[in-house]
Amino acid sequence: MSALKSHYSCAELAAMRLTGFPSTKKGWIELVSRQKWQKQERVGRGGGFEYQVPSKVLTRIKEEAVQALVKAVPIDQLQPDTDVAQLESVKPAELKDWQRKTAQARAAICAEVRRLAEVGGTERAIRSVLDLAARGSLAPHLQRLVPIANAKAGTDRALSRGTLYRWLNDAQGGWAELAPKSRESIEVPVWAPYLLKLYQQPQKPSLAYCIEQLPSILPSAITPPSYHAANRFLKKMSKVDVQRGRMGSREIKSIRPFVRRDTAQMWPTDAYTADGHTFDGEVAHPAHGKAFRPEITTVIDIATRRAVGWSAGLAESTWAVLDALRHACETGGIPSIFYVDNGSGYRNAAMSDAATGFMERLSITLTHSLPYNSQARGVIERAHQTIWVRGAKSLPTYMGAAMDRQAKQAAYKITRADIKTSGTSRLLMGWNDFTSWCQQQVDDYNGRPHRALLKVRDEGGKLRHQTPNEAWAQAIAEGWKSVPVLAHEAEDLFRPYKEAKVSRAEIRMFGNLYFHQDLDPYHGEMVRVGYDIHDASRVWVRDQEGRMICVAEFEANKRNYFPTSFLEQAAQKRAEGRIKRAQVKIEEAEAELNPPQMLEYQPAVELAPMRIEYPREEQERQSDKPGVEVAETAVASVVNLPKRRPMFSTDAAKYRWLMTNAEQINATDEGWLDWYRSTPEWEDIFSGTEDEEVTVR
Fold first, then answer.
1. d(CA 526, CA 58)
2. Is the pLDDT of residue 279 over 50?
3. What share of the chain is helix, strand, coil (3-state, %, to 5)?
4. How far, in Å, CA of 570 to CA of 578, rounded?
5. Which of 51, 149, 415, 561 could pair with 105 as two cysteines, CB 3.0-4.6 Å apart?
6. What is the per-residue DSSP string for 634-654?
7. pTM of the model as a whole
8. Distance between CA atoms of residues 140 and 111, nearest Å
């Protein structure tokens, strides 16, 4: 029924099937005739008469109409999980889940009241909903929302007339206005500042410890909180605010907001990023074959995430960075920006000098990240994990934090035992094999899908991310071209240069002298000198404008007859430094084991006068001297006594004494030396030192 009328035909009344009234047209005709209802002619097709319905019957019609609407489930009826965005006038950004569910339940009930009010009015619709809700006769989806809309404890709480009127009024401002207010208190307890003073410390004390110490700093008028009260207060605080003081300015960045940089608009070689990584596995040292962890420098193209260059060396240095950059420029092209950290391998004159630096000669803009801000270089940090850490885990000599301690110790013992007996180990990868392995890891990385790149469909129709190689190839297909390094430029372009002063056609570099007759006109002037880090036999000399002057050769009037290359000098300096540091550690260990013996003060002792006794042959000569009393004595025979062996406080002191007094070693000492050389103490202190072999009798 679309709307109520004042006059109905008998056929319409019969179709309503009102409770307590006739259900057929004939029955209604008899009723209206018997009660003499007023009638009027029916307008429209079929004609006939319509009867004015008494108020009693009209009330029944309205009630039956409301019941029919409640039992019907309209298509657009709101469900418990239905999106009610069409009712939203205020963004419920700060609503919690329970508040949002309650507001949506109230909005659904209000929508039902408004729908029924179109037939019987708001008052009758509200009473009908209240009566049906009390009897559990609402539509099932609405009946389930009643306890949620109440938002009160207990399942038998019923709706009230005033509540529904209030909900209808609040709903005019949007469904979010129906949300109940949060019952959480925002009042800061008086003990909170004292608790935070204890809790927000870099030592990261536990809350239980802070509660234990809190009474000692609280004023007597303040009652200390319980553990649970303090815990509830900390949970209400912002996670960042709670960690202030417990986390420093660097560490707290890991939970602070950050900027995710978009590289979709970048072309390859627009920017390279590089960094060094200490390899998480041990390999054989290229010089002596012992176990060590090399330093790998990797260069990544930011736009395509492609590894365009890498270098492996003994330590991160300017030359390792230079070699990686050379590899990147030759394989990928010269970049516009080189984005690196503030390490010594990047911030130096060889890289950034205005006259001789690589960046100036290659026309590259060198950009440094902020100090202690590794998150800003997430591209290269992630690449280290994907390429080198992932690869190192496939080796038996992996030494990372994820390695099982027992397995790590077993591999360590095997490699050291092998090195002690044969100078190398079967578990250690040789240097040449390692460099080939590194190239394979880079190739595998460039061929794997990268989640930072676009999604494509493979040959089987499966959706996946592009690989770095595919992203690079796509840029080429779209017309991008790199800035290549020509073959004839590569040798000199990556040669390091320094400024030096010419003196009588000579140039002094790294302790070596280089001479050429063409330098005669440049006496006393500063020139740019290029050198090969592997070959010290010659240098390339240019004037301040970059024009080539000559190639100066190594001459005999130098400090060394044979020249020493820069790398050899650096290796010698590094070795001397390691020896010096190791000697300091040995001396410290000896001082701990052999503390200096302090002599206590003793009073002076008066000695009796001593007589000088001479042998018989001397008596005759001494007797001629006046004032000398000579006593006859027997000539004492001279015996070569063995050197007195000191008391040893440690095994290390005994070992050193035996090594410097080989003539004192006996059969017992030989057995002791064999035992001591097999102990961990000898391995830690003396292994690797060049002690002379002792020949025992």
1. 115
2. yes
3. 45, 10, 45
4. 12
5. 149
6. PPPPP--PPPPPPPPSSHHHH
7. 0.49
8. 15
